[in-house]
Amino acid sequence: MSNEATGNGGQALRWLRRTVALPYLWLLLFFLAPFLIILKISFADPIVAQPPFTPLLEWGAQGLAGLKATFENYAYLFQDGYYGIIYLASLKMAAIGTILCLLLGYPMAYFIARQSPRRRQILLMAVILPFWISFLLRVYAWIGLLNNRGVINEFLLWLGVIDHPLTMLYNDFAVYLGIVYSYLPFMILPLYANLERHDHDLLDAAADLGARRWQRFVDVTLPLSVPGIIGGCLLVFIPTVGEFTIPALLGGADTLMIGRVLWDEFFINRDWPVASAVSVVLLLLLVVPILWFQYLQRREQDAGS
Amino acid sequence: MKNRSLMLMTIVAFGYALLYVPIISVIVYSFNDSRLVTLWGGFSLRWYVSLLSDEDLLGAALLSLRIAIVSATFATALGAIVALALHRVNRLRGRLLLYGMVTAPLVMPEIITGLSLLFLFISMADLIGWPASRGATTITIAHITFSMAYVVVIVRSRLAAMDESLEDAAMDLGGRPVAVFFDITVPMLLPALVSGWLLAFTLSLDDLVISSFVSGPGATTLPMLIFAKVRLGVTPDINAITTIIILLVAVAVATAAFVSGRRESAGLRGVR
Question: CA of A44: how far to CAs of A47, A280, B79, in Å?
């Protein structure tokens, strides 16, 4: 970060300063501009045409005089209780999925952080490895397992635990399972990073003062790991709210999640302005958790450097 | 106390089982002779053989590979530049905006990214006549945009851990900046560039949602084809594809770990 002034280094930095314009423009065009467009279309009227919405700004018209905005799409979202229910259902499913992930991920991260450095490496690797295999295919794998005639049911029938197959697929249970399965690494990694840094002297001190094991956990470890818990939960919660693949493959007809509804609104109903309004509202719902997450990231980075 | 650690062990074992049982079951059933997915009909390679004559599938796989290689390469180059600029340039103009734009894709719902990019491509076609039709090119652009964010994260963490004195020394000895960049900085960043490229490659190969939005008629990627098939339930040939992909990924990850491990130790030896 230092040598901005020195001759040679300055030259390199000038080169970097110029070159960064390329990815900068790229992001402005392919990341920022699309959002402005989606915002624009969410205020447009739907028409039967290609593209199926009225132009908000007539190009060539005198500036903003040509602005034709309508709040109808948003009014539609709020009047029609359907969407409200779906947003709430998505938030609920994401929240429950996140909590289930935490309940499984915390003990795993705790366990890993207490192993010898070599075993830690292996156990962490084993958590990350499935992440490299296609998400779609891993979710698909559950269809074969959860089926009425699937591996789990056949096994339980064979054991004699059940006498008729359990319905485990195409319902909310399958979606929760899919969420926990897919996002478990995102929960474990920040938790592990936090738990591994804990100062063991604190636990020893608590033990010397007579605290039992469970008490030491509740009074020392748990409070210290709160940043890791928040980080992991946000990392699971944020993508889960808008999740499409898991409810589409594992959910039932009554599993309402906004990602799936948005998909249908777009590909089946072809109502693009409503689809845009749906995504703008989804983003607004996610703004708080996203900003919270970015704040935590930045604090982490400041602490690191 | 013993009970408690037994409970912990059980939970941990359950967690790992959850991560691996689905993958293992797909691999096992890919060798199943029976068309009925759950009935074991004996060992067979018939699903692998039938893949070879499935032209739709081979076409989709080739298209996905092509898109993944091109987009990973561009994403790595652009992402590395962004990471370097964020890390090295003081008082970068518009730094906050750049930082925001490059971290946002990490947390953006894919479905919104896909929808918004599609609208951009349609508006651009309206305005400047490009892209005239959507397909491999638009998918590649979309993939570069979101995987760049992951490359930036990886390269930045490497930069934060890197020793800058080597570069300074090379500069002091009169090395031209561009030469220093390619002779010193790039080799030092190489492990991060390799893992960034691999991550971008996997993300691209795996993407269903964004590709579905920005694709056009005639351009079906492998995940799009697989999704259309598995929506109707389990099909044995998808088990075979999954197994092949798992094998490829395993080889790639092992190679990457081996290469970066060796580079790292080689680098350390060089410093000593």
Answer: 9, 13, 35
CB-side exposure of B212: number of CA atoms within 13 Å? Answer: 19
Coil/strand/helix, residue B133: coil
pTM for the full predicted model: 0.85
Dihedral sign (CA A234, A240, A242, A245): positive
Contact assignment for A23 to B81 by CB distance below 8 Å: yes
The residue ranking higher by pLDDT, B71 or A145, is B71
CATH, domain range A80-304:
1.10.3720.10
Query: CA-to-CA distance for A192 and B103, rounded, in angstroms?
Result: 22
Domains of chain B: 55-271 (1.10.3720.10)
d(CA B52, CA B45): 11
Domain-wise residue ranges, chain A: 80-304
Residues A300, A293, B90, B167: is their CA dihedral positive or negative? positive
Is A226 exposed, middle or buried, given 0-12, 13-18 or 19+ CB atoms closer than 10 A? Answer: exposed
| A262 in B contact zone (CB under 8 Å) | yes
Task: Tell me what ipTM this predicted complex has.
Answer: 0.85
Query: Among A266, A247, A265, which Cα is nearest to A256's?
Result: A247
pLDDT tens digits for range A219-255: 888 888 998 999 899 989 998 998 999 999 999 888 8
Q: Estimate to the nearest angstrom the gap between the alpha carbon of B157 and the chain centroid.
A: 18
pLDDT per residue as tens digits for the range A121-138: 889 988 988 888 888 888
Mean pLDDT, range B51-67, rounded to an integer? 90
Q: How far apart are CA A19 and CA B185, in angstroms?
A: 16
Q: What 3-state DSSP class applies to A271?
A: coil
Is the Cβ of B197 closer than 8 Å to some Cβ of chain A?
Answer: no
In terms of CA atoms, which chain A residue is nearest residue B201?
Answer: A132
Instruction: List chain B residues with CB under 8 Å of A111.
Output: 8-9, 11-12
Residue of A nearest to B27 (CA): A141
Question: CA-CA distance, A245 to A260, in Å (whole number)?
Answer: 8
Rg (C-alpha) for chain A, rounded Å, is 25
* Interface contact flag, A238 B8, Cβ < 8 Å: no
